[in-house]
Amino acid sequence: MKLLAIESSCDETAAAVVENGRHVLSSVINSQMEEHRQYGGVVPEIASRRHTENIIAVTQKALNDASVCLEEIDGIAVTYAPGLIGALLVGVNFAKGLVLATQKPLIPVHHIRGHIAANYIAHPELEPPFLCLVVSGGHSHLIEVLGYTKFRIIGRTRDDAAGEAFDKAARAMGFPYPGGVFLDQAARQGDPSVYKLPRPKVEGSPYDFSFSGLKTAVVNLLHNASQKGETVEINNLAASFQQAVVEILSSRFLAAAEQFGYKKLVIAGGVSANSGLRKRMEDECKRRGYALYQPPLSLCGDNAAMIGAQGYYEFLAGHTAGLDLNGVASLPIDAE
């Protein structure tokens, strides 16, 4: 079964052709990163306009690269939630137009489910159930993946997501947008023991996350040093911050695995590209005898291949939509 997948939830216009949920025939991504960098973050109105301008060409290239035409496609999968509402609507309405023209099934896909499914592409042997840590710019979740379309949230962020905290702390340190990758590079050259930063916890919710206080601690440290005329060694601060985030994420992930009896662990989302997190989880899982699955760097960020992968399993579960499908800015992963 070949699916054409569309992804436009933020600032990447992406299309892909995926066969049977595991085999990527093509994957095309048009990134707006350079344009948004001058503003220090994604400008929703600009993102929506660029999606409108790029989506036809991106989709045509995905079909061409896969050497298929629309008539050979068995269904159209599209990200409908969560994300920037204007950006989502571009992809959803474009997909509905294709469905109206071809009479193919329309398959709505939750963006975070797609990030998890990126691992099905990278690891053909991976099957549920497993425990997954989803970490991205807008989401930090601990999720029991009970089936391909059945999920249970056991932990989530109460404020900033991990990726959001990375970007905000990186901006305070003077790194360009998106700051997470630059902070990661600086952290590899720094000493994480130099600056003592907090590890916030949520009282009564051992698997929930809170990163706002950690981000604020970095901002205050930089501000206080500036007021006193002191120099902050940015590489060391980056290393200290990254170590704090990695410890928070990995400690809750591993504690949940032990409590719920999981020895198969999966990481997904943009922050799964972070070198500190990947190494910590590799070391900890090796020590415990756990199986760890991580997407390659090419599948960590937003892409349409992961939407096509999850779309296949949504279709098998009977999850299709009509032309009244709408974009949804915020929606839990376990919503039916």
Short overview:
The protein is of the alpha/beta class and 336 residues long. It is built from ten helices and ten strands.
Share in helix: 40-55%
The N- to C-terminal Cα distance equals: 24 Å
Secondary structure class reads alpha/beta
Largest sheet: 5 strands, mixed
Mean pLDDT: 95
Q: Quick one: how many beta strands? A: 10
Spatial order of strands in the largest sheet: 3-2-1-4-5
Mind telling me the C-alpha Rg? 20 Å
Provide a count of the helices: 10
- Note the overall shape: globular
Strand content: 15-25%
Flag low-confidence runs: none
Element pattern in H and E: EEEHHEHEHEEEHHHHEHEH
Describe, in plain words, how this protein is organized in 3D.
The chain is globular, with a radius of gyration of 20 Å. The protein is α/β, with parallel strands linked by helices and 336 residues long. Helix 3 links the parallel strand 4 and strand 5. 44% of the residues lie in helices and 19% in strands. The mean pLDDT is 95. Helix 5 packs parallel to helix 7 and helix 8 runs parallel beside helix 9. Strands 3-2-1-4-5 form a 5-stranded mixed beta sheet, sandwiched between helices. It starts with a strand and ends in a 20-residue tail after the last helix. The protein contains 10 helices and 10 strands.
